[in-house]
Design a protein that fits this description.
Structural class: alpha/beta
Number of helices: 8
Strand order of the largest sheet: 5-8-6-7
Shape: globular
Helix content: 25-40%
Strand content: 5-15%
Length: about 270
Amino acid sequence: MRRLAFLLAVLALTVLTQIGGAVLILAWLLGRALVPKGGRHGLAVPAIFAVLYAAATLAVVPPLAALAGRVPLPCRAEPGRPVAAGSPLYCLLNRNYVDPRVVLLLDALVAAMDQANPGTVTLYLDANFPFLDGMPLAPHLSHDDGRKLDLAFFYADPDGAYRPGLLRSPIGYWAFEQPGPDDPQPCAEPRWLTLRWDMSVLQGLYPDRPLEPERTRVALAWLLAEGPRFGLEKILLEPHLVRRLGLSSPLLRFQGCRAARHDDHLHLQIAG
């Protein structure tokens, strides 16, 4: 049972972080070598893992990922660069790596947003792992080659005032903007074998924090107008939000009814 639990932990950490499974195996080997026979090997391994994982995430992975053509996005907003991870988890789990062209696109968007609406903080969600094209970023179907990035929506207080740096859900996903009765609903009919989760139980748990349409519209309008210069090839967004925001472009795509909903975030993709 211990071996099975260990293998499951290796698998889970690999799926969540890409590097965590390998780090856990190394921590286990070091624990065996450093802890005397009969000692508390099981207690030493988590501590060794924590140290090794932190060292790998901060010092080892970034330069190696750069050699593979991927760079990390900033975890926190800085003066002159108001962009940050929507949750510390995205950096902690090494899910914040992108093709350098995505950085150029994001930095240009952030500068445009700050110029149009000073004080705006742009938040990103899942990006990609640091290594290996073709390894998807669970639970996404894509995010496997450095070319994809999810951006959070901008939100306001119930009185309509913009709230910088805040999301509706703790990780930015699954707090859906529900379509109205007259809005297009291409996935109203139930389907089997689908990743389109409605998360109905969660919706009532989120704070009353409506979408801030002005900043969201400005961001999308800029991406549609200027994004192609940076290689932007498509944006995934639900049809009812496209209609609500009054936008139209061949770059705006519907992901289909078997993929996750895209009325809780924007999915950006640059050309290969």
